[in-house]
Design brief:
Number of strands: 17
Largest sheet: 7 strands, mixed
Number of helices: 6
Distance between the termini: 17 Å
Strand content: 25-35%
Bound molecules: NADP nicotinamide-adenine-dinucleotide phosphate
CATH superfamily of the largest domain: FAD/NAD(P)-binding domain
């Protein structure tokens, strides 16, 4: 059987592409490495997706999934894509569960949190070092935690952590945050959050679990220690695009044109995994819609 479209990745971009593909009567399947929902599942609170003033990431993901199911989108979980072979008018998506032949592919595989590269970071992962406050914040009730980074992830998760932790110390390598202004204002107004500016975490240490971090002030070139029970790392994103043999930028984000088509005809990309000025749920959803409509037009032209 040859599908019209294989969507790789089940976050907001993939599920939206699925909704648009099914409404265009395309024979579509969505493949997902884990379960559908994407990274927003571990986002505590979403406040900037229109129509929902406040909704948890998991609830919003559930709504996207229900919506896609209503239009009969076929989804397959626990399927890992390893490559895409371009055979001209068809493509073969190679996966851990076999091959899927299709006329078009939409890649919506998102990103994975970047590692910091601090000494002993790996050894303490799961023993105080975490990349997911929603998953692990609970373990730090009435404790002190360090959050590394100055972007929206670091700041929104620092605010979330104040619900459990008694103290949240944000360590940022510059003296200005990158996060949205409204998130900055919320963080500055929160009495549980303090900031260590112009500083990088060089080492994480402790006996069995995290007890402190070694921090270097990059302006003064001075080293100091901060006692902490946990370290939450939010220093950016790595695109999940290793399997895709399409043109990418130097960081691995997929390059697309306005139709969200990649360097290979019939292969499209949408959402956080592509080169884009903004990585939000709202932009991922828009991307998914454009990619699905572009796939439909491409198929019509075959
Ligand atoms: P990001 O915007 O790339 O920010 C990464 C942060 O980590 C920056 O502050 C950066 O410092 C710092 N950093 C990078 N490498 C570092 C290193 N080696 N050592 C120390 N610090 C380092 O990543 P993000 O915060 O994960 O956000 C990703 C995207 O998702 C963004 O587009 C963001 O707007 C979006 N997002 C939005 C929301 C929301 O509520 N609207 C929530 C989460 C994410 P510099 O600032 O000095 O570069």
């Amino acid at each position: 059987m040859v599908y019209d479209v294989v969507i790789i990745g089940g976050g907001p971009a993939g599920l939206t592409a699925g909704i648009y593909a099914k409404r265009a009567m395309l024979n579509a399947v969505l493949l997902e490495k884990m379960g559908v929902g994407g990274q927003i599942i571990v986002t505590d609170l979403v406040e900037n997706f229109p129509g929902f003033q406040e909704i948890s990431g998991a609830d919003l993901a559930g709504k996207f999934e229900q919506h896609a199911r209503k239009f009969g989108l076929e989804t397959k979980s626990m399927v890992e894509v390893t490559g895409i072979e371009d055979r001209g008018n068809t493509k073969v998506v190679k996966t851990s569960e076999g091959e899927f032949e299709t006329k078009t592919v939409i890649i919506t595989t998102g990103t994975t949190p970047k590692k910091l590269g601090a000494k002993h970071e790996f050894a303490f992962t799961g023993r105080g070092v975490s990349y997911c406050a929603t998953c692990d914040g609970f373990f730090f009730k009435d404790k002190t935690v360090v959050v590394v980074g100055g972007g929206d992830s670091a700041i929104t998760e620092a605010i979330f952590l104040t619900k459990m932790a008694k103290k949240v110390i944000v360590v940022h390598r510059r003296d200005k945050l990158r996060a949205e202004k409204i998130n900055q204002e919320h963080a500055f107004a929160n009495p549980k959050i303090s900031f260590v500016w112009d500083s990088v975490v060089e080492e994480i240490s402790g006996k069995r679990v995290v007890e402190k971090v070694v921090v270097r002030n990059v302006k003064k070139n001075e080293v100091s220690e901060i006692k902490t029970d946990g370290v939450f790392i939010y220093v950016g994103l790595i695109p999940n695009t290793g399997f895709a043999n399409v043109k990418k930028d130097e960081w691995g984000f997929i390059i697309t044109n306005d139709s969200r088509e990649t360097s290979i005809k019939g292969i499209f990309a949408a959402g956080d995994c592509r080169v884009t000025p903004l990585r939000q749920i709202a932009t991922a959803v828009g991307d998914g819609a454009i990619a699905a409509v572009s796939a439909e037009r491409y198929i019509e032209g075959l």
